Amino acid sequence: MRILIKNIKQLVQTEEHPKLKISGKEMNQLPCINDAWLAIEDDKIAGFGKMEDWEGIADWTNLTIIDATDKLVLPCYCDSHTHIVYAGTRESEFVDRINGLTYEEIFSRGGGILNSAKKLHEATEEELIESALKRLNEVMMLGTGAIEIKSGYGLSTQSELKMLRVIKKLKALSPLTIKATFLGAHAVPSEYKNNKRAYIDLLINEMMPLIAEEKLADYCDVFCEQNYFTKEETIEILLAGKKYGMTPKVHAEQLSNFGGTLAGIKAGAISVDHLEFVGDAEIDALLNSETMPTILPGAQFFLGLPLPPARQMIDAGLAIAIASDYNPGSSPSGNMNFLLSLCCINYKMTPEEAINATTINSSYAMNLSETHGSIAIGKLANVFITKEISSYNFIPYSFGSNLIEQVILNGKIIN
Ligand code: NIG
Ligand code: FE
């Protein structure tokens, strides 16, 4: 199968020499080719350039031609943080928050993550696969091409394994590139309320060996926060996960400055995520690390949390990734286009910075930057074609509109 996209008004995020991530001032640069062509062979990008330099078609075998006059082509978004496998929804808690309860108050009454854990316990694998596939298809049509999915609504050996097996099946069923994360340390289940030590032992001594045996997880994650897991517990759990081949990630500094970022750096985390309450000490430490600071504008917006210091972080020289955190409690949307708008409007990130954060940098946060995140020869052909729009600035500008016309994943036209 071969595809040629021609007359592209603007081919966005092209790379001659692919980078693993883009930091600081460079985030404001977004290489583009105006009036371009893009060639795809099998599942890979085979070539691209300006129309005026195009040599025409020598071989018509199995070739599909797409005319993209007045349209843009971008690499698909990489969404490096989601909880897209879940049962039921939590709009009643949404209304509770409108009426004055906080996210923490809802959790301490047995709601929040514990509410989703009860629902997940009752759901079958088949039900979880069916609902997750619907959500995956929805975000795919919104331009997402690779996605990380966490467990963490199981909170028991049986249910955590159920979630991770569902994610493994989704990898086979969906054309999206999927990475799996073990998040048994998402909350302390009610039965262990007065014995957190025993729950941590269960995570490390019972769950991790079983997960490793079935090769169910690429990453291990911990929610480092007051009433969840301390900095020391986070380090202990992440280092244990590492021994079982799971790369660390952390939910850090979401509700308070609690030490998750430094814990993640110490454990060699690939990313630390959320960061509303990140401070100067964390920014300095991140500058001396390979850890990708990842901001989740959907959760910050939906919970009405303070703005993370994204501008300060980029100006200090850091790379930033953006992901959706798609989950039923704090971010019930995986629309990366809308996140571009939130970054530009609320964090004063430029469209270039926001696009780098949702493509190359978020691909780094799931070890995919060698194959995803930009238009480069040899990378996977995961691209989308927009409707007729004036420039990439129009995507964050026209918040709430769906401007994506066609999606190509692994070199196959999806719609
Ligand atoms: O990333 N902060 C912790 N975990 C999720 C929310 C989970 C939930 O409320 O269901 C998050 O925001
Ligand atoms: Fe999360």
Please tell me about this protein's structure.
The chain has 415 residues and is α/β, with parallel strands linked by helices. It folds into 2 domains: 2-75 and 374-414, Urease, subunit C, domain 1 (Roll), CATH 2.30.40; 78-364, Metal-dependent hydrolases (TIM Barrel), CATH 3.20.20. 35% of the residues lie in helices and 22% in strands. It is built from 15 helices and 16 strands. Strands 1, 2, 3, 4, 5, 14, 15 and 16 form an 8-stranded mixed β-sheet that branches. A hairpin with a 2-residue loop joins β2 and β3. α4 (125-141) packs across α5 (157-173), α7 runs parallel beside α8 and α12 crosses α13 (351-358). The protein starts with a strand and ends with a strand. The relative contact order is 0.17. The model has no long low-confidence stretch (mean pLDDT 98). The structure holds N-(iminomethyl)-L-glutamic acid and fe (iii) ion.
In short:
Helix content is 35%, strand content 22%. It has 415 residues and is α/β, with parallel strands linked by helices.
Tally the helices: 15
Main sheet makeup: 8 strands, mixed
**Class of the largest domain in CATH?**
Alpha Beta
Backbone CA Rg: 21 Å
Poorly predicted regions are none
Ions, cofactors and other ligands present here are:
N-(iminomethyl)-L-glutamic acid, fe (iii) ion
- Distance from N terminus to C terminus (CA atoms, Å) equals 16 Å
The CATH homologous superfamily of the largest domain is termed Metal-dependent hydrolases
Which structural class do you get from the secondary structure elements?
alpha/beta
Number of domains: 2
Q: Any idea what the shape is?
A: globular
Rounded mean pLDDT is 98
CATH architecture assignment name of the largest domain: Alpha-Beta Barrel
| Helicity range | 25-40%
Give the amount of beta strand, in percent. Answer: 15-25%
